[in-house]
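Extended Data, panel c. Modelled sequence:
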Amino acid sequence: MCATDKDSLGSTHCATAVGKYSDVDKGGNIGTLFFRGCIDCANKKEACFALGGWLKEDQHKTLLECEIECCTSDNCNNQTTPTLTKDAITVFTPNVSGPAQCNECFGSNATSCNKNQKNETCATDRDSLGTTHCGSAKGTSRENDGNVTSDFFIRGCINCADKKAACAAIGGLLVNDERIRVLECEIECCTDSNCNIHDQSLEPIGGPTTKPTVSAGREVHYVLFSGVLASVLAFGNILYHL
């Protein structure tokens, strides 16, 4: 069931996706991804980023490109397999330079996050969600059974040019890592090493960072994951590597 399966990436759509990934554990070898499963797919780019976050935590592979087709009927994702083209959605860009390392942690709030914080090397860490920014994000989540909601706070390396896509990647990561579904996500990003020292309000601790965030001025996105209340039965998540 899309609404409760532990690996479900959403409950609004069924999807078939193909992609190209880099295997961090095998020296960056390139492989091909085939995926079928439940996902929120109102925006295909965000869906691909969610899949990228899920794959990072599940198998420590970096999704580079993605083509995805989605539908809304039960078990409808038996459509013709998409083909990777030159217009494929770019997900993670491991060769794009940015901060060398970022603060990494996870907790229910900034205080609990601080207690287990460590450095994350953006270009090589197995769980890094990108190389262009350091990020701090907070939001609300629920467990897969739908009965318990809680707050979360997370820091780490991330691709943050598109903040909604960045939140989607975090959502995919947390489905796999913490077995929770992100309901809302607010994120702030910066481009210096270890600059993601934002407090609970996502303001930089001790004043502004030395470089602006993604765009001039403060830009924060509240992302509501629309599929969390829907109940759609769909084919379970299946992941193949060719």
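The chain has a mean pLDDT of 85. This feature is highlighted in the accompanying rendering.
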